[in-house]
Every structure is written in structure tokens, then in C-alpha cells.
Amino acid sequence: MKRPNRRQAVALLASAPGALATAWAAPAPGERVVWPEVTLLDGTHWGPADAAGQAVVVVFWSTTCPFCRRHLVHVSRLQGAVAGLPLQLLTVARERDVQAVQRYMTAAGHRFAVTLDAEPMAAALSPRRMIPLTVTVDRAGHLKQVIPGEMFEADVLELAGLAG
Questions:
Q1: Quick check: is 13 in a domain?
Q2: Residue 122 sits in a domain of what CATH number?
Q3: What's this model's pTM, rounded to 2 decimal places?
Q4: 71-111 pLDDT, tens digit each
């Protein structure tokens, strides 16, 4: 479902108070995440089975965002730190051009999983459109945090603790 703009949201709220809540069905912290099935940049699929029993860190980003560029360097280091641990790392590029994202990933040397299916992931996790946006989910599948903005390297690496 497409997120309503401000005017539509006000109209929805005035006409049917429950309609706005339906438009943003993302869970609150502590609630269970309902994972969508998404297609990764390499053509494989990622979904609920991949998240089962795993902590998950999801990062929303864009190729044109300088804050994301620095943040993703820390995310790459996190990927190395959690190798073999029960933690999935998934990033969501808010882009439409697959080749542009592939070029960006290659140039930066990033090897983490990327999907361009931003809308279903945002619906499952958070309606916030800020980037970078880091979302954490515990091993039981409950939303832990939605962290807006660029993070320091130490803070990103601390997310490895979700696997424990």
C-alpha cells in the first residue's frame, strides 16, 4: 500500500480514524515484525524463513546520500564482525536503478545483501523515510529499535550484540 501524503492522511483521519493506522502498519518496538518476501540485488529472494531465529539489522540508504556512504562503511565492518553469528544484515536501497546500485556497491567494495523493494520493507518496519535509517529486530522477531541518521562505527558494531 502506498503511504498517503499529508493531505490524504488528514482526510483519512477526519473520515475514519482507524484508516490512518492501517496505512502505517509497521510494528511498535516490542511487537512482532511480519517480514515481506523481497528480491535481492543478485536476484535471490529474502523473506521470513531467512529471518527465523536470527537477529536482523536492516539499513535503508541511497546512493546519493553522503551520510549513507559513511554509514555503510561501518555496516560493512559489522558484516565482518557477525560472520557465523545468528544475525542477518539486510540493506534497502531507496533507488529504482538496479545498475546504479550495483555500480555503487562494486565501487565501494560492499558485499552485504541489498534489496530495492523499499516499500514492502518500510511497511514492515517503519514509515520513516529518513536515510540512513537503521532498524534492529531481535532473534524472536520483535522490533527493537528504529535508529534515524548516521551512526558512529562503535555504535554500529555494538549491534552485533543482538546475536547473543
A1: no
A2: 3.40.30.10
A3: 0.85
A4: 999 999 999 999 999 999 999 999 999 999 999 999 999 99
